[in-house]
Amino acid sequence: MSVESPVDPADLLRRHGLHVTAQRLAVLRAVSDGPHRTADDIDKVVRAEIGAISRQAVYDVLAALTEKGLFRRIQPAGSSARYENRVGDNHHHLICRTCSQMVDVDCAVGETPCLTAADDSGYEIDEAEVIYWGRCPACVASAASSGG
């Protein structure tokens, strides 16, 4: 059985035609260590790691890494955009209405019914964004124990 070796973040940036900078490496780590973080959360993590960096610089790095396909930007209704580095597959998300926790949900294995629109208007569909809303197990348990 072969084990996939971890990808060097600097090599990853270079392969996508980006210069390696401390800011880009810090943003890569922040998203890798905490998928589904908002830009503000990523900004706080990056500032704690490398110190002085403008909020705009963090936003610029997020935009560049998203444009190059290293990150996926998810913006649920009524919520700030969140970023993840799980790209290249057609997975979905589940969000808790109570605590806003977001988790990945794999798409159906085999046939992907979410990619078959009733009327595709001639488009070649390659991705669907599905967001499931509900309550996470911790929030359900908390509501049950408090009688809510």
Structure characterization notes:
- The chain has 148 residues and is of the alpha+beta class.
- The protein has two domains: 9-74, Orthogonal Bundle (Arc Repressor Mutant, subunit A); 89-145, Ferric-uptake regulator, C-terminal dimerisarion domain (Dna Ligase, domain 1), CATH 3.30.1490.190.
- It contains five helices and six strands.
- The protein has helices spanning 9-15, 22-33, 39-50, 55-67, 137-145; strands at 37-38, 72-74, 82-84, 92-96, 102-105, 131-134.
- The strands form two sheets. A three-stranded antiparallel sheet has the order 1-3-2. Strands 5-4-6 form a three-stranded mixed sheet, with no helix packed on it.
- α2 crosses α4 (55-67) and α3 packs across α4.
- The radius of gyration is 18 Å and the shape is globular.
- The N and C termini lie far apart (49 Å).
- The relative contact order is 0.12.
- The mean pLDDT is 89.
Q: Helicity, in percent? A: 25-40%
Reading the helices and strands in chain order gives HHEHHEEEEEH
- Which parts are unreliable, with pLDDT below 50 for 5 consecutive residues or more? none
Beta-strand portion reads 5-15%
Task: Write a short abstract of this structure.
The chain is an alpha+beta fold. Helices cover 36% and strands 14% of the residues.
Break the fold down into its secondary structure elements and pairings.
Layout: H1 9-15, H2 22-33, E1 37-38, H3 39-50, H4 55-67, E2 72-74, E3 82-84, E4 92-96, E5 102-105, E6 131-134, H5 137-145
Parallel strand pairs: 4-6
Antiparallel strand pairs: 1-3, 2-3, 4-5
Helix pairs in contact: 2-3, 2-4, 3-4
